[in-house]
């Protein structure tokens, strides 16, 4: 069974992919699954019945964007030299026990999103197709037979590697952990029908096959590897084990064939699918990935049901259509600004466009840039953010100060009461009303349940 995590331009959700159709698991009585539920035979059996009976909402796979099944793993544990042919190409002895190393969870990126090359002049970036094992249940000191019961499913991982950093450091972590160096997807395959120890694996660069092997070349199979790792560390739901790569990596080819900006990788594993990612140059304009957008949606936007359904039903009570696709699951055009709010359906990719007409509009940044600045401003200097976005320093600094002015010195905030265009979100329909204390509603960003603070701690 192929589980997929995907977005239609709104919040990410889970589904089951059947050929070119995705069956939305939001319609399952229990709600969307945890990795623990995906690892459970009983749960999968119930889902199979719902899929086969066409009970669940369906969407075309080409109408959505697939996401990494585990966007932020608790840990990524990798195994080196786990294919006999990979050991052979390096003239290495077959190891007696797994050689483990780590990869930063922040390296994960989605199917279709770019692999960002840090520096084509200084870093040699390599590809490695690998079978990813996603843990579904906590486990410690497991036997080989017990190990499989703790697995939620299997996915494709492209263990992208910075060889120059590896060689300079004498260890793997930094070279394996550049942002975007762990593409993952496109599906999460669960169930006994999939044999992780006997599937074909292949990696192509611009259509040319660079790696081709089978997991029957494993030195340590999945059960052995999971059990071995669990002797040293507790495995938890959401941990990912990357099981090693076969021969054919670029650095050991003659001549060397590493990745360059403009190329496209396709890492494919039988039964899971093909994970495709373009390679881009970091020195070009910063590219914000779909993963970042969906994470931003969770942080900065209230649930879409409160944004749309409440407004449509409570304020208008009539059927209107999306200005883009004609869908009638929409909210009506607003009135705050004569051309500000042409409300769109939930499924259009322009879901976030309303925000650009609220308190941020005067800064003239794209929405992705706004989200990036807000996310990074607590940990990165403003000058670095400006360089990342290829934007004027003063413009970025002014935007940072604006956010600090309206949010105050708080750890977390969200767009819970965006009122500059009152018809937009959860407070829509209450324009001009008084709050519980009889005072006019305040405008702007504020933390849920808290008054906005105007104390600032400005960056420079």
Task: Please characterize this protein's 3D structure.
- This protein is α+β, with helices and mostly antiparallel strands.
- The chain has 12 helices and 19 strands.
- The strands form 3 sheets. Strands 1, 2, 3, 4, 5, 6, 7, 8, 11, 12, 14 and 17 form a 12-stranded mixed β-sheet that branches. The chain has a 5-stranded mixed β-sheet with strand order 9-19-18-15-16, with no helix packed on it.
- Helix 8 packs across helix 10 (367-376).
- The model is unreliable at 285-289, 296-326, 330-362 and 408-460 (pLDDT under 50).
- It holds the Pfam family FAA_hydrolase.
Ordered list of secondary-structure elements with their pairings:
Layout (H helix, E strand, L loop, with lengths): L1 E6 L5 E6 L2 E4 L10 H4 L2 H12 L5 E3 L4 E3 L8 E5 L3 H6 L9 E5 L4 E2 L5 E3 L7 E2 L2 E7 L8 H4 L3 E8 L2 E2 H7 L3 H4 L5 E8 L10 E6 L2 E7 L7 H11 L7 E3 L21 E6 L3 E9 L8 H11 L3 H13 L50 H10 L5 H8 L3 H15 L53
Parallel strand pairs: 6-17, 8-14, 9-19
Antiparallel strand pairs: 1-2, 1-5, 1-14, 2-3, 3-4, 6-7, 10-13, 11-12, 11-17, 12-14, 15-16, 15-18, 18-19
Tell me the fraction of residues in β-strands, as a range: 15-25%
Q: Mind describing the biggest β-sheet? A: 12 strands, mixed
Number of strands: 19
Intertermini distance: 52 Å
The helix/strand class is alpha+beta
Kindly report the average pLDDT value: 77
Stated plainly, the CATH topology of the largest domain is called: Fumarylacetoacetate hydrolase, domain 2
The radius of gyration over CA amounts to 24 Å
């Amino acid at each position: 069974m192929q589980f997929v995590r995907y977005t239609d331009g709104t919040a990410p959700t889970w589904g089951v992919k059947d050929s070119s159709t995705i069956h939305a698991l939001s319609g399952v009585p229990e709600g969307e699954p945890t990795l623990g539920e995906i690892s459970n035979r009983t749960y999968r059996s119930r889902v199979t019945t719902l899929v086969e009976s066409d009970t669940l909402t369906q969407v075309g796979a080409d109408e959505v964007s697939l996401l990494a099944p585990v966007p932020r793993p608790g840990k990524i544990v990798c195994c080196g030299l786990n294919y006999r042919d990979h050991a052979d190409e390096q003239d290495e002895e077959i190891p007696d026990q797994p050689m483990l190393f780590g990869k930063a969870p922040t390296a994960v990126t989605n199917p279709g999103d770019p692999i960002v090359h840090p520096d084509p002049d200084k870093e040699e970036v390599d590809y490695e197709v690998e079978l990813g094992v996603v843990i579904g249940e906590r486990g410690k000191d497991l036997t080989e037979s017990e190990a499989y019961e703790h697995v939620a499913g299997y996915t494709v991982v492209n263990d992208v590697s910075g060889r120059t950093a590896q060689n300079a450091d004498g260890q793997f972590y930094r070279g394996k952990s550049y942002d975007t160096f762990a593409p993952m997807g496109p599906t999460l395959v669960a169930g006994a029908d999939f044999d992780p120890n006997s599937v074909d694996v292949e990696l192509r660069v611009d259509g040319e096959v660079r790696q081709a092997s089978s997991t029957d070349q494993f030195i340590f199979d999945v059960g052995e590897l999971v059990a071995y790792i669990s002797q040293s560390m507790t495995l938890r739901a959401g941990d990912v084990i990357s099981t090693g790569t076969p021969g054919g990596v670029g650095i050991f080819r003659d001549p060397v064939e590493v990745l360059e900006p403009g190329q496209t990788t396709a890492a494919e594993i039988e039964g899971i699918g093909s994970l495709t990612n373009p390679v881009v140059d970091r020195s070009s304009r910063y590219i914000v990935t779909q993963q970042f957008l969906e994470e931003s949606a969770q942080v900065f936007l209230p649930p879409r049901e409160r944004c749309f359904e409440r407004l449509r039903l409570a304020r208008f009570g009539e059927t209107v259509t999306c200005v883009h696709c004609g869908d009638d699951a929409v909210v009506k055009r607003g009135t705050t600004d004569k051309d500000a709010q042409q409300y769109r359906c939930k499924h259009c990719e322009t879901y976030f466009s309303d925000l650009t007409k609220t308190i941020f509009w005067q800064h003239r940044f794209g929405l992705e840039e706004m989200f990036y600045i807000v996310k990074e401003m607590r940990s990165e200097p403003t000058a670095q953010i400006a360089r990342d976005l290829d934007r004027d320093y003063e413009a970025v600094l002014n935007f940072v100060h604006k956010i600090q002015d309206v949010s105050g010195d708080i750890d977390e905030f969200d767009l819970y009461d965006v009122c500059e265009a009152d018809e937009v979100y959860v407070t829509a329909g209450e324009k001009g009303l008084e709050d519980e204390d009889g005072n006019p509603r305040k405008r702007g960003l504020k933390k849920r349940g808290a008054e906005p603070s105007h104390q600032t701690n400005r960056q420079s």
